[in-house]
Design a protein that fits this description.
Number of domains: 1
Structural class: mainly alpha
Radius of gyration: 23 Å
Strand content: under 5%
Helix content: over 70%
Oligomer: single chain
Distance between the termini: 48 Å
Shape: flat
Number of helices: 2
Order of helices and strands: HH
Number of strands: 0
Length: about 60
């Protein structure tokens, strides 16, 4: 591991972080609602998929033991 590059990498990371922080802004209420809805739908799909896999696996669990 090359420790000489750490200060340079840290300075580069700091500069990039400052650049990102400067262009960020607070989302509008409409943007927030869209992101929240899409996230809720995604969580619901993952939960439903997990439930279906669990429900299908229960009857088949004895076969694989």
């Amino acid at each position: 591991m090359n420790f000489k590059n750490i200060p340079r990498k840290l300075a580069s990371f700091t500069e990039q972080s400052k650049r990102v922080w400067q262009i960020t802004r607070k989302p509008s209420m409409q943007e927030f609602k869209i992101v929240a809805a899409v996230s809720a739908i995604g969580i619901g799909i993952v939960g439903l998929l997990g439930f279906l896999l669990y429900a299908l696996w229960q009857p088949l669990g004895g076969i694989f033991r």
